[in-house]
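> Could you send the long-chain-fatty-acid--CoA ligase prediction when you get a chance?

Sure thing. Input:
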Amino acid sequence: MDRLVSDENFSPSLQTTLAVGGALALVAAAVIHRHKDKLSSLLVEDFATEEMNQDTNWQRLTISAQAQGCAEARIPASIGSRPLSTIGKSIIDDRTFATFYEGFQIGKAIATRRGDERCLGYRVDRQSPYQWVSYEEADQAATEVGSALIELGENHGQNTFIGIYTINSVEWMTTALACHFHSMIYVPLYDTLGEPAIVHIINQTSLKTIFVDKPENVLCLIKLASQVPTLKRIILTKQLPSDKNTEIINKAKEVAIEIMTYTQLRDLGRSKPVAHHPPTPDDMFEICYTSGTTGLPKGAMLTHKNVVCLAQAATEVFSPVFTELETIISYLPLAHSYEQTIELYCLCNGFKIGYFSGDVRQLADDLAALKPTLMPCVPRLLNRMYDNIQATIRPLNSFKRFLFNQALAAKSHDVEKHRIKRHMIWDRFVLKRIQQRLGGRVKLIVSGAAPLSPPILEFLKRVCGAYVVEGYGQTECCGISTCQMLGDPTTGNIGVPLNCNMIKLADVPDMQYFAKDNVGELCIKGANVFKGYFNDEEKTREALDSEGWLHTGDVARWVPTGQIQIVDRKKHMFKLSQVC
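Output:
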């Protein structure tokens, strides 16, 4: 991730831009100093040609936290006085859905209606443009994979678990769709789990089939065969290197594990079609194992209702900036609920998902080729992006630094007015190269997983020409439970509760935190909160109380304007500064 904005690629472009645009920008700087309000409305007229974001003329925001009394805490309403959502809602045409199976069909219909059915994108290599699988083709691939799994002995329904041990890819998502189509439950695996955790997960869920992409992970599973007696087959989602093919097949035969390719699986399913077996809202779609800090991972049981209610919540927050033409870059691990929830939301709205090439060091190339409009992020990436921009700006001469600072001042004017838009002068001639490193079309950057430094957040809001918001969540609530509102100029907080859940603060007397003082353990209750940990009632009781509140272990405070601020960790497992 350290080279998202690489010095060698970034620096000359910015310096050239500043030099070429210098004369025009110098005049503009004087104009802006005297007529800031007028120039702040000077926009590029042709947004499609210039790939600019449209000004949405934001009104000033008022964010309040309505509270009611509680024996141990205060419980604010979610957003305004609307009831909490329990179903999904398309951001495009207001249709509702109760399962992701239904949501995907709505997304497919939206894509068909707009005449652009692109769904899942990938690159063959760094020099190639994105190639696309349509919504109909993704549906067909998932149908074939699901039919093949049933032909191989897997069953419809909630007693079947399918392992996915690959990086983000078309095959990852079509395998997940296949499980959705037949009410199966998928179980993501990832490299950092370690062998003991992988053995634990396979045995706890009795996995018989695992989809794998890397030859080293195939060999790892074969090596562990004696410890995981339920494992019967491995589906290769990528072609094996010729020097590994014979070795892997022979070793798999020795331990009675069947090796099939994804193509062979689809061919089997095409010849043995099986009707879909749609899920219900309370059916599980995934067991998502959390790595935790000690001991073996816990498997969070997530249902269709858990994830689709977040689609309604996201519609409440992001509808002003989204159309049916959005594109997301997928590079954060799909094995984690944060990225999964975002991508499932995108598919329910007919958006396009472009998968990175597999190497985060080459992410800049993927961004330039894809030109996404939505970019999920984590603070580590944004911190390094900020550092690289600063490293590029520091050696510039005083005139160029003056232009850059004038651009920031002009953009600050908009941020203070609760709006984000692109300027004809500053974005085109000073900030354009920075924005092009993200593809040039990003409308929204959502940061999660850890706190983002307020100065960095403020800086990125100005230079990226996009809304940059922070959210908060845990695997146990499908990755997201609070988010900053678009246009909210404040920093240092995780926003307000989404309208699918309530938040309360509970007393932590051992640490002298009391809810009456608007500070305490952050607790979440709503349709996005998980059912519990798979086959682990003790851990479930530790996380969920008798009233259904999820106790996160994070200590939070209500700030006067209604947002939530994380201030401590109940168990002191780590310091916040270490997660960035």
